[in-house]
Specification:
By secondary structure, the protein is an all-alpha fold. It has helices at about 5-20, 35-40, 50-55, 70-85, 95-105, 110-125, 135-145, 155-175, 180-185, 190-200, and strands spanning about 90-95, 130. It folds into three domains: about 5-55, no CATH class; about 65-145, Helicase, Ruva Protein, domain 3 (Orthogonal Bundle), CATH 1.10.8; about 155-200, Arc Repressor Mutant, subunit A, CATH 1.10.10. The chain has a two-stranded parallel ribbon.
């Protein structure tokens, strides 16, 4: 936020605080905030008296990403709002378009959904908003959901090398038909060393 914007915001909150504190004037204030006003007040980023006056009744809504079932209803509401403001009338969204909306994480919450619907409404050529009308970021999100990135596998080097060595020893013994002297030659080691490795790898009883 620029210094000028901060000054204007401070002036606005000061005027609102004076209005709320006015005696003999009854009214209700309904507001929305992305962050807790009381938390902002404790951090010195908001007037404490105004935060206390506005926070008498709080209704906390989880992020849109945590209530995906609300997305179709909200999307339809934004379609109808856009219909009311423009000459273009759209009935709603196709099932495929709704799938794209459901796959997107909505980091910008409800405001971002409203913007997406407004833009798609302007691009729609038919009676409904289709997947083609949605912005590219939603297409990328659906593609990522369909092909999730595999988590990086942790490789314990000693265990990995032991598995490889065990496999090589088993193959050498099979080629040598159980003859440890021949198997040792195939592996380029002495018979005593092969025997020790067999014991260490659990392929031979130490007794």
């Amino acid at each position: 936020m620029s210094p000028r914007s901060r000054r204007l915001a401070h002036r606005g909150t000061a005027e609102l605080a004076r209005l709320v504190a006015t005696q003999g004037f009854s009214f209700r204030v309904i507001g929305t905030a992305r962050r807790s006003l009381m938390e902002l007040a404790r951090q010195g980023e908001y007037r404490e008296d105004l935060a206390a006056a506005l926070c008498t009744l709080l209704i906390e809504l989880p992020p849109l990403a945590e209530r995906r079932s609300d997305v179709p209803l909200l999307a339809q509401m934004f379609v109808e709002q856009t219909n009311a403001r423009t000459d273009r009338q759209v009935a709603g969204l196709t099932a495929e378009a709704l799938d794209y909306l459901a796959a997107y994480p909505w980091p910008g919450n409800v405001d971002e959904l409203a913007q997406v619907i407004r833009e798609a409404h302007g691009r729609a050529e038919g009676a409904e908003i289709t997947a083609r009308d949605l912005p590219p970021k939603l297409h990328l999100a659906l593609s990522a959901a369909a092909h999730p990135r595999r988590p990086d596998e942790t490789i314990v080097l000693d265990e990995f090398l032991a598995r490889i060595e065990r496999e090589l020893v088993v193959r050498a013994l099979a080629r040598a038909k159980g003859n440890k002297t021949k198997a040792a030659k195939l592996l380029g080691m002495t018979r005593p060393r092969l025997y020790r490795r067999l014991v260490q790898l659990g392929l031979e009883n130490s007794e």
